[in-house]
Amino acid sequence: MTNTETEISYLAIGDSYTIGEDVPLESSFPYQLTEELKARGLKLTKPDIIAKTGWTTSELQDGIRSAELNRKYTMVTLLIGVNNQYRGEPKEKYRNEFKELLQTAITFANGNETHVFVVSIPDWGLTPFGMESGRDIRFVSSDIDAFNAINKEESLAEGVSYTDITVASRLVVSDKELIASDGLHPSPKMYLDWALKLAPVVMEKFK
């Protein structure tokens, strides 16, 4: 039975995909996820967000330290790595820093790894921006898959939930409504898809 009486606090950490670049904050996936969970009977506070466009894993670590949050949360989402991939940073560096961020997320979740939810990196290469970037989009897709293989492996090793939104993100090729006006970031429609994928996973953990 779902506990609908206890108010759930939610921290979302990441980059542009968490803060919702080029869309209203209320259309970002943390806010849409909150609304979906409320509709399913959970009581949530407004999400706290530590995220900034362009952040890599190391920059997110710096951002978390700068935020000086001295509290715990009922649930935490983590989505990070696209800028590591975009800048061509070493995968081993990503693995090490992602593992550290995963531990940070678990700490924020009061040590409960089952209340941490990792989201895979979407494929920016198939967006209009990606198509016009001069990059080899086949390489971009395979490289993102490689980064996602790392974050999935490390998440599952820690008993953390993992939600794959990458395959669905590639539907931008046939559905331009999934892309924001900047031609790169997700639209509210795509963020809603993420929220709909995450909501039942979260609900399962809070029964």
Structure report:
GO terms for molecular function: hydrolase activity, acting on ester bonds. This is Lysophospholipase. Pfam families: Lipase_GDSL_2 (PF13472). Residues 12-191 form the SGNH hydrolase-type esterase domain. InterPro entries: SGNH_hydro, SGNH_hydro_sf. The structure is a single chain. The model has no long low-confidence stretch (mean pLDDT 96). Helix 5 crosses helix 7. The chain has one domain: SGNH hydrolase (Rossmann fold, 3-Layer(aba) Sandwich). The chain has helices spanning 16-19, 29-39, 57-67, 82-86, 91-108, 128-131, 137-157, 166-169, 188-205; strands at 7-8, 10-14, 43-44, 48-51, 75-79, 116-119, 161-163. It is globular and about 50 Å long. The chain has 207 residues and is α/β, with parallel strands linked by helices. The strands form two sheets. A five-stranded parallel sheet has the order 4-2-5-6-7, sandwiched between helices.
For the record, the count of structural domains works out to: 1
How many DSSP E strands? 7
- The mean pLDDT is 96
Net shape? globular
How would a textbook summarize the main sheet?
5 strands, parallel
CATH class value = Alpha Beta
In percent, how much strand structure appears in the residues?
Answer: 5-15%
Reading the helices and strands in chain order gives EEHHEEHEHHEHHEHH
- Please, what is the CATH homologous superfamily? SGNH hydrolase
Distance between the termini: 5 Å
Give the strand line-up of the largest sheet: 4-2-5-6-7
The helix/strand class is alpha/beta
Q: Which blocks of ≥5 consecutive residues have pLDDT under 50?
A: none
Please report the number of helical segments. Answer: 9
CATH topology: Rossmann fold
> Which quaternary structure do these chains form?
single chain
Gyration radius over CA: 16 Å
Instruction: Estimate the helix proportion, in percent.
Output: 40-55%
Q: Judging by the overall fold, what is the CATH architecture?
A: 3-Layer(aba) Sandwich
